[in-house]
Amino acid sequence: MGVKELWALLRSEGLVTQVQGGEDHPQIVREVQGKVVAVDLSQWFFQANFQPELLANFPTQEARCLKLSFERAINFLRYECVPVGCLDGDVPPEKRELLQKRCLERSGYVGGGNGNSAFQELGNLVGQLLRALGLPVVPAPGEAEALMAALEVAGLVDACATSDGDALVFGATHIYHTLRLQTMVTKQSEVVRVDMEGIRGRLGLRTGGAEALLALALITGGDYDASGLDSVGKTGALRIIRHLLKGRASDEGIVTRLADALAQAPDTFLESLTKCTGCRHCKHASGLKGHCKHHSGRNPCPTCQLREGPCQCPFHAREEERRLNKVVRLANQNPGFPARAAAAYKGYRSQRSGASIAVSQLPQQRLKWQQRPDVAKAAGLLGVHLEWEPEKVRRKLLPLLLTWDAEQRGHAEAEFEPVRIVKLHGAGYGTEPQKDAWRYLMEWKRLSKGSQQDINHDTEWLTGKGTCTPDARSLRIDVVAHHWPALLAKFNTPAPAKPVRRPKKGLKEAEVRGMASRMQAFLTPARKDAAPADKAGRAPLQGRGLAEP
């Protein structure tokens, strides 16, 4: 869940970018290609347990989560987007009860953060599968969202994929609320993104942003204090934060300023400002109990000239102070709020600190797709829980094996080699179909490595005798250009011009004319020989049997 109503607030402020497949699919390709993304695996697990197709075909949650994670990892990698699995660790005491209740409602089991909990066992199982595919998996000391943010801050990943707004509070700067990537049906792909840079712009900041969102969470409520301040909505809370940040380039110290403001007694003068007392004509205070259309003789104003702009009466001029004063009054009426807010603040900071320490102990280099998929290990896990045969697992992994072998040209484990570009693949979407295509359909050669059974199955599948789809045999254009330039040069070389062939109709007419000429040549000498001589013993003239004069 994270910060209450945070995503609705960000959408209302125009800070959420959404791109769907179809004609905009090329934009999705450009968005994710080459990215390393920290993924909140707990959300994959929840989603797996709510997909009707998975529920109908796979009776156990282990099978559902493994299948969803397996297929998503394959799709991500085919877009050159590397998912880094992030696993929850021990749940902080401040939110353990809330999380247990939420897990029970969503999935039917308690995820309390204990070392032997079903939730963590499920995470370990999926982690084994992702590692078998060559992907990094990082366990968190506490919340996965805090770990993801720390990984991004350290430069080990480029973005975080989670719908939990707490990742922003923990310091993440690029969040994918939705990251759905499909290679078979690209129109089903979707990206929903928010960036901290946009949030800073709305708050008038140059740096920071996470502390301001933390202060917002204390008012609206979140995982560490579900109540927050009752009767203060997301929009009102945002106005309070903006007021406290006015004139500042950084949000440093915003939580302290909020606490100091809420600890004060309500201002009685501000509470007395209940309506506008300004002049609509000149915008100055009217001096009356209410507003007026313009000043009069009994209520003079030496500069009562028509003016544009906001009203300058105290009610409007001190509007932001009045809003803050209302929140101060609510805080004074809720004596338990300061202690809850302090505990929530401590919980957020503790998680952020613990995650930063954990990330500092990792190799300080950008994470990547580490190794060629281990088909045997993946088949072992999926065979036990999904009852898939090894051949089926290998067939599903074949696109990744082709991609890895093409990218790691000449490595010792290579089993496949591209030999020819057949055509552009998937050029049906985008405003410029040929330009927006992102893959080539390739012809492949199966090298003589591995078992003979695998060689036979792979060869049959790749030559089209099996069920290998063009999608599975396709390869990203950038991979071909970088690693196989000779194939690209040959593909782009125009074919030699073919000799011009006459239309069939013309050929038939020529044949008819030739046949007539041959027939005439054949018949003419025959008539000459057959014609009788005249009385003088002379042969007849040639042509139509005319006699010589």
TrEMBL record:
Disordered as annotated region, ranges: 524-549
Coiled-coil segments on the chain, per record: none
Stretches assigned to the XPG-I domain: 131-205
Domain XPG N-terminal: start-end pairs: 1-109
Biased composition, class Basic and acidic residues, residue ranges: 526-537
Top-level taxon in the UniProt lineage: Eukaryota
GO molecular function list: 5'-flap endonuclease activity
PANTHER family named in the record: FI23547P1, FLAP ENDONUCLEASE FAMILY MEMBER
UniProt protein name: XPG-I domain-containing protein
Organism the protein comes from: Symbiochloris irregularis
